[in-house]
């Protein structure tokens, strides 16, 4: 319930709004009352509300939309340790949702200079590049771009399995053992964000990975664009 008791601090406002979000009083993607209305409700100054809102935005409890208002941020459905290597299909299944795929394109391409560096010392003449949208219970959640030696995964076999990992293992008899990963938050992507049904202020998480077999053979390069309101990643760190 809302409370009119206050201790005259932005910390009080912060805790009140956070509790109301966690209790479901303010629901995901719901617009919060204006800063003036919140100040009146909690009996504090507008400045103290603004300070609380700034912290809530920093901690991903809310999203600010200039000229529109403040909205409750959606909680990620999928949470995974980035040190855990699994396919997108496996991640979606582990959340209890049904994975699906929408194929955008599958083409043979020439290797770029970056490809030659990534896949060295292998010499590859043609890459199969596959672009797909991965869905969870029908909702688009990840845009995947995969590049693999076309000898390991011919174009005509691309649609045979949802998981690229499984397709490479089935056809090429090569099993991915580990990957070197880089993750970065990016803003609105003009081509990909609309395909994932993102709002203009919704961020994406770009996960770039180079995958290897246990014999250190480079097999697959992937660039996956995850909806940041649906996925979260964490790292387990241990003291040395």
Automatic annotation (TrEMBL):
GO molecular function, one term: DNA binding
GO biological process: negative regulation of DNA-templated transcription
Keywords: DNA-binding, Transcription, Transcription regulation
Occurrences of domain HTH gntR-type (ranges): 7-75
Keyword Repeat in annotation: no
UniProt cross-references to CDD domains, sorted A to Z: WHTH_GntR (cd07377)
Superkingdom assignment: Bacteria
Pfam family, one: GntR
Alphabetized SUPFAM superfamilies for the sequence: Chorismate lyase-like, Winged helix' DNA-binding domain
Name the record gives this protein: GntR family transcriptional regulator
Organism per entry: Gracilibacillus oryzae
Record lineage: Bacteria, Bacillati, Bacillota, Bacilli, Bacillales
């Amino acid at each position: 319930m809302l409370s009119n008791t206050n201790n005259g601090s932005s910390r009080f406002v912060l805790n009140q709004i956070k509790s109301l979000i966690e209790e479901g009083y303010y629901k995901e993607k719901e617009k919060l009352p204006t800063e003036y209305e919140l100040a009146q409700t909690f009996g504090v100054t507008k400045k103290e509300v603004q300070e609380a809102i700034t912290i809530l935005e920093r901690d991903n409890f809310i999203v600010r939309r200039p000229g529109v208002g403040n909205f409750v941020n959606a909680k990620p459905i999928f949470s995974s340790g980035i040190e855990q290597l699994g396919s997108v299909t496996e991640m979606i299944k582990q959340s209890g949702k049904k994975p699906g795929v929408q194929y955008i394109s599958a083409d043979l391409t020439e290797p770029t200079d970056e490809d030659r560096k990534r896949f060295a010392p292998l010499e590859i003449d043609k890459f199969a590049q596959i672009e797909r949208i991965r869905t969870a219970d029908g909702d688009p959640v990840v845009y995947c771009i995969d590049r693999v030696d076309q000898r390991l995964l011919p174009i005509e076999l691309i649609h045979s399995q949802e998981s690229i990992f499984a397709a490479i293992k089935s056809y090429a008899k090569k099993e991915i053992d580990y990957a070197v990963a880089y993750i970065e938050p990016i803003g609105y992507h003009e081509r990909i964000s609309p395909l994932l049904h993102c709002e203009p202020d919704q961020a994406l998480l770009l996960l770039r990975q180079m995958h290897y077999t246990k014999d250190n053979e480079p097999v697959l390069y992937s660039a996956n664009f995850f909806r940041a309101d649906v996925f979260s990643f964490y790292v387990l760190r241990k003291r040395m």
